[in-house]
Structure formats: structure tokens, C-alpha cells
């Protein structure tokens, strides 16, 4: 009885035009892991290699100048997309993981900003990418990790606990904008305000927000923000590190040395290039950056802009959440729709089904052509110690999905559970 939600754009994605198995349409519900790519992005990649490929920032010939211009235009496009003040605040990396490691090493270690006894304040919902690098830096510097818990009743970030854990020892706060397991949106602007008042800098892991909603780094006032191109319609191999110009300039020292990042090199020492090149050692992923700019153009223009994408995803978030939580045997992890409030949940649900292993769920629904993820989604501590389940299944939607895809998932879940000798019953209204 709920209104159907058509996809924003399913036709531009050639990979979705195939069958997953004979007679079974591919229903792709794993965009939190990686997104599919529209034809225009595939074309941009091919066009660059067909017409414009040369190494950047090196040659004096026209082709190299064209490649360099395209690469730097891509940086400007990303800066505009995030509303950065200046495009030198955008550093290209391989992925979000490398962006976080760059901050950990270049700021915490090479920049000497972390000392024994300093505290790094994370949350219990961190992806391993925003946990393991800090463990490594803590081991080298003697800094200490702390983790903000969830409110046990709502599964929202416990802001009271955050206030308590934030002290004059806290040098850094790092948190996900949107959790890739709980689907919850964190109050990042509030976290930044409190952290800055306590003298700490803030890194926002925006992997699950930048592809799905407007993100404005100046409005958030965060010191760093990271995202991965491959989750926002761009190729894999290109990631984004945004950093405030002052922080990138004054508080960080490069940790990868080599070509592109230098000014003058002598036998025993070197001077470094200015921003952003000093953090981009070696030949960059030029074509992938150019294709990322095309993805940004696609989201901003062809799809009508991020407010429209977000509006669509809010409907999908609700449809997905309600579709899964109508069954007594299904637990959707993370805050309830009511607890999360308006705009509080992304179009992503990690769930478990009583007496059924999540791997079995995803393997059986795959027979119906439905791609969902199962496992710990790179958040082992969250699953083990907070949710207290060995893993979960996760369905996540993007601009090419429709409510029909979610209906197909629910039908397949019924089939899977029956195959395993259990059943799904409706929660009485
Ligand atoms: N943080 C979050 C919240 C993520 O969802 C992911 C990707 N699963 C990452 C970090 C790491 O992204 P990548 O593997 O592209 O570096």
C-alpha cells in the first residue's frame, strides 16, 4: 500500500542492464561498498586515455599541459562540490583509507602533533580505515585511543559521553559522518564545535555521506574530511583528502617522498612543493581524477544536484527501513527510524535474522539476482562488542535503485528463510 519510488536514474548504468543469472535481473544493493558507474564516467575515462593522456606537471608540450589542466580542473571541481575555500585544500589520494593514513602519518607522526599521553577520540562505530591507522600512530607516539560509545537505548552516538571524554588531553576527534553499519548520521557540526572549544582538531570520515547528501566543509568547519571516489560513481583508485589550508600548511609534513612533491632536491636534503602537491608524491591517478570530476558533474547537473539526490534517498531510506523492520525475526541494527529523527538515517540497513547466518542470507538472495553484503563490513569491534553479533547482512541503495528493488529483496528474504527451515512473520501493527 506504500507509494512506489522510481529510481532517479537507472538507465545510465550499463552494468545494471545485465542479468545476474539467466532470467534474473541484477538488483544491486551494495552501493555502500562501492557504487556502479554511469556511462558518462566510463566515457570520460576512455576519452582521457584516447585523447589527453600524458604525465602531469612535467612536460612542456601541449599534450602534457592538457593532461595537467584536466587534472587541476578535477581538483577544482571536487573543491567546489565540497565548498572548500580553495582548491589547494583538496589532495588526491588512492582512496579514503590512504587519505586517513596521510593525516595520521603527516600530522600525527611527521608533523609531531601527537605525544605520549595525548588522546585520540574515536567512536565505537569506526570503519577499520579510521581505527587501524590511529592504532599504528598511537603505538609509535604513545598517544592513547578512546572510543565514544552509543547510547544503549537509541544506538545513537552518546553525546553526553562524548562531552565527558573530550578533555584538554584530546588532540584529535575522528568520526564517521554516516555509519556504514548503523546508517546513522552523526551531528558533525556540533561535534566540531565542542572539539574546537576543547582545542582538538576533527577528521570526518565522509565516505557514506559525500555520495548521498550535500556536504559543505565550511559549514561543518571540520579540519579534514575524507571520501572515496568509487562510492560516488567514479572509478576506484581515486580518493579525496580535504584539509584546511592552515592545517595542511602549518601542522603536517609529507610522509611519502618522491617526484611531484619537491621543490629543490640536493644530495642530503630537499625542499618541498607547496599545497597540495607536497602530499601527492609520484604520478597521480590522473584519468581517475578526471573521471571523478565527471561523476561530480553527473551528480550536480544530470541528477539535478545533491539536495535532489538526498531528497530521493530519504524516501528510499524510509522504504528500506520499513520493509525490513516489518518482520518479527529481523533486527535492523542502528537507531530506529523514530530515534534517528528526520534525516537521521541513510538508505542503508545492516540486519540479522533470528537463527539464520548472514552469509547464508546473502548467498541465497544472490540466487535471485540480488547483491547484498554480509560480514562485519570492516567494523569488527562494533559487531563483536556493541551489537554482539558475529556479522550482519547489509542492503544499501543509491540513485539507480527503486522501491521495486527493495520489494525484490524482501521476496527473496522470504524464500531464503524458508529454504533454511525458518520463517518471517509480520510484526502485528
Ligand atoms: N570509512 C567508511 C565509513 C567506509 O564505508 C569505507 C568503505 N567501506 C571506508 C572508510 C574506506 O573506504 P576505502 O576502502 O575506499 O578506502
Automatic annotation (TrEMBL):
<dbReference type="InterPro" id="IPR015421">
    <property type="entry name" value="PyrdxlP-dep_Trfase_major"/>
</dbReference>
<dbReference type="InterPro" id="IPR010970">
    <property type="entry name" value="Cys_dSase_SufS"/>
</dbReference>
<dbReference type="InterPro" id="IPR000192">
    <property type="entry name" value="Aminotrans_V_dom"/>
</dbReference>
<dbReference type="GO" id="GO:0006534">
    <property type="term" value="P:cysteine metabolic process"/>
</dbReference>
<dbReference type="GO" id="GO:0031071">
    <property type="term" value="F:cysteine desulfurase activity"/>
</dbReference>
<protein>
    <recommendedName>
        <fullName>cysteine desulfurase</fullName>
        <ecNumber>2.8.1.7</ecNumber>
    </recommendedName>
</protein>
<feature type="domain" description="Aminotransferase class V">
    <location>
        <begin position="27"/>
        <end position="409"/>
    </location>
</feature>
<dbReference type="Pfam" id="PF00266">
    <property type="entry name" value="Aminotran_5"/>
</dbReference>
<keyword id="KW-0663">Pyridoxal phosphate</keyword>
<keyword id="KW-0808">Transferase</keyword>
<dbReference type="InterPro" id="IPR015424">
    <property type="entry name" value="PyrdxlP-dep_Trfase"/>
</dbReference>
<dbReference type="InterPro" id="IPR015422">
    <property type="entry name" value="PyrdxlP-dep_Trfase_small"/>
</dbReference>
<dbReference type="GO" id="GO:0030170">
    <property type="term" value="F:pyridoxal phosphate binding"/>
</dbReference>
